[in-house]
Design brief:
6 strands, about 50% helix, alpha/beta, six-stranded mixed beta sheet, about 280 residues, single chain
């Protein structure tokens, strides 16, 4: 089987978890290669996500590693056999790979929790709002590249609006709601969009007021993606190269703690909805 030219974040995660199981068992790649009639180089390629692995091999490896977490093994086996080619595949070669990675991770999520400070979260943005943001951040972007970015962002909403919507909770700072990325009409339409999503049950929104005392999290934006088992949760943070995918348990625990801390600084959903209503009337 030829090696992949690009491993998706989900494929990399499968390989990472197999490597962690091997290391927990105290085995070297060369010691495992014989079990699969393979080589240590091929084991490394599998653990980096560049080589595929079958369900049968996942289960053989888990047994060899003496892993007794059956829920985790089943989840890894499902990842190995998943052949989903979602809507995001249409943008392969059109947009940078991270766009597909984010959409794929969201698609497989069991829950989504997000904190945003400076912008309305992408899953709630209108097309005009998203276009204004992309134009500002990338002023030289031609229409041929701007249009698919906006389309991709709009199509991401299927994860919370589809037939089997994923539970989604977001904490939005008041600054993001007040900031006019375009003009008054775009801001008004954006607030209306958020209210519509709340009323339709697609999102639980909590607002962090700008006058909240003791709030030191102004530099923190993140998404916490629930996996099929807690071991497979994923964190997404902005990074200089785009989006960083976080899977180390210590870092995930830090993100969980941060979310709860920031949630405690926010208004409850009913008060947040009323708050957004008032902002819309002010425009």
């Amino acid at each position: 089987m030829p090696l992949r030219s690009h491993a998706t974040a989900r494929q990399v995660r499968l390989g990472t978890e197999l490597r962690r199981l091997r290391e927990a068992a105290g085995l070297k790649a060369r010691e495992v290669a014989g079990l699969l009639n393979s080589t240590s180089a091929q084991i490394s390629q599998m653990e980096l996500g560049f080589a595929g692995v079958s369900e049968e091999r996942v289960r053989r490896l888990a047994a060899h590693y003496a892993c007794t977490d059956h829920a985790l093994i089943d989840a890894l086996a499902a990842m190995a056999t998943d052949r989903t080619r979602g809507w995001w595949e249409e943008y392969r070669g059109v947009l940078p790979p991270v766009f597909q990675d984010v959409a794929e991770v969201e698609h497989h999520a069991t829950s989504l929790r997000e904190v945003v400070i400076t912008y309305v979260p992408g899953l709630l943005q209108t097309a005009d709002y998203a276009r204004a943001v992309y134009r500002y951040v990338h002023p030289g972007l031609p229409e041929s590249e701007l249009k698919p970015r906006v389309e991709h962002r709009m199509r991401r909403r299927t994860v919370i609006e589809g037939d089997r919507p994923t539970p989604y909770e977001t904490l939005i700072h008041e600054f993001a709601l007040r900031a006019r990325v375009a003009d008054r009409a775009v801001s008004r339409a954006q607030l209306r969009q958020i209210l519509d999503q709340i009323e339709q049950g697609h999102a639980t929104v909590r607002v962090i007021p700008i006058d909240q005392d003791g709030f030191g999290g102004a530099g923190i934006s993140m998404m916490y993606v629930g996996g099929p088992v807690p071991r497979l949760d994923t964190g997404l943070r902005d990074a200089p190269t785009g989006v960083a995918f976080i899977d180390a348990e210590a870092q995930l625990e830090q993100l969980r703690t941060l979310f709860l801390k920031m949630q405690a600084a926010s208004l409850d959903p009913a008060a947040s909805r009323d708050f957004i209503h008032r902002l819309k009337k002010e425009l």
